[in-house]
Amino acid sequence: MTDATKSPSAADSRDMADLLARAADGERITPEEALLLYTDAPFHALGEAADAHRRRRYPDNIVTYLIDRNINYTNVCVTACKFCAFYRAPKHAEGWSHDLDEVLRRCSEAVDLGATQVMLQGGHHPEYGVEYYEELFSAVKKAYPELVIHSIGPSEIDHMARVSNVDIDEAIRRIKVAGLDSIAGAGAEMLPERPRKALAPLKESGERWLEIMEQAHNQGLRSTATMMMGTGETAAERIEHLRMIRDVHDKTGGFRSFIPWTYQPENNKLKGRTQATVIEYLRLIAVARVFFNDIAHLQSSWLTTGKAAGQLSMHMGVDDLGSIMLEENVISSAGAKHRSRLSELIDLIRSADRIPAQRNTTYERLAVHWTPEDDPQDDRVRSHVSSIVDLPIVEKQAAQAEKKPVEK
Ligand code: SF4
């Protein structure tokens, strides 16, 4: 990203070394400094600074993972984001909604496979107000009190409040009482105004997304924060996204982790015109680690960037590989093809010279796999156990198997 025609002066190099040292020491850096690191820092030095930051925070060298299932209750949505391949407009022939029994059946399978969390996510259905979410969360909580409901995001809260004609505070209070434990950082995409309008013109503004998150934090709900990069935003807009999140965290302390992922280009209206490279992604990961010196955790996305990039990210400041995702349909609909068995995820962590551990939503470590003998043995635990985006492939394989002559 540096201008290769311009060699840095000795003074520039000294300034960069000083900035990297301050970042590695956990000193608070400014957005301008973060941008300079993002665009100009030598790749390995940037990774080393971020990793030094991680080592100081997690000297035991543990990298965590989670077992959860993303359960989609509907794909019907009125917001029509241009990057989204999952939604269908109301009355579209391919629109669907799952009833409560189906959601509970999926929760039951998740519990059976050792999940500790469900992420209930869906479109902005024109009829789903606060009452719908109260019923959904309370039914899941009643049937599976052991499952943490880490679900929806500010966009869904904004939508349900409008449908039910109540204010945001009331919507948050009611869904919290119904059983919502934690808010997912979904719907952040890009928070600065220009890229957000280009991607999702009907969605609430980035400021509004953060305002709702702040209200949720003030009511005692904690959350994650996300970013979708690679849709044509500038380097400065990426760093501005980080600044906007950090400003809210400074006030509330409510973000548990930051999770950037890359835009997937299939089956949506952006038609894959732009994408982030793996190097851009890893640089952003490293800058996020040193910029968010008060946000405890940094998660990388093996689902969108692949397992190799996921493994490299552990040398760029990442302390968490996120979920195995027993089910995922939203990002997968747009082309995310990476899949993993739990044993592979654990191997990735171990071969990056880190110690794998299963965590829960609040990053409490449930099981540390100090040696390979401690690894879980249930081979059923793998990503996309029953994701609908995989169904056509599964059905094709079944049809081929049927045609194949039976071996005697
Ligand atoms: S990203 Fe969410 S809000 Fe946007 S169209 Fe897709 S389902 Fe709807």
What does this structure look like?
There is one protein chain. The protein is built from 16 helices and eleven strands. It is of the alpha/beta class and 408 residues long. It has two domains: 15-55, no CATH class; 60-389, Alpha-Beta Barrel (TIM Barrel). Helix 6 packs across helix 9. The radius of gyration is 21 Å and the shape is globular. Mean pLDDT is 90; it is low at 393-399 and 404-408. The structure holds iron/sulfur cluster. Iron/sulfur cluster binds next to loops. Belongs to the radical SAM superfamily. MqnC family.
Number of domains: 2
| Ligand inventory | iron/sulfur cluster
What is the level 1 CATH name of the largest domain?
Alpha Beta
Structural class per helix/strand content? alpha/beta
Biggest sheet: strands, sense, closure?
7 strands, parallel
Radius of gyration: 21 Å
Pfam families: CofH_C, Radical_SAM
GO biological process, one term: menaquinone biosynthetic process
Binding site for S-adenosyl-L-methionine: 83, 189
Keywords: 4Fe-4S, Iron, Iron-sulfur, Menaquinone biosynthesis, Metal-binding, Oxidoreductase, S-adenosyl-L-methionine
Q: What are the salient characteristics of this protein?
A:
408 residues, alpha/beta, TIM Barrel, 2 domains, 7-stranded parallel beta sheet, 4-stranded mixed beta sheet, 11 strands, 44% helix, disordered C terminus, binds iron/sulfur cluster, S-adenosyl-L-methionine
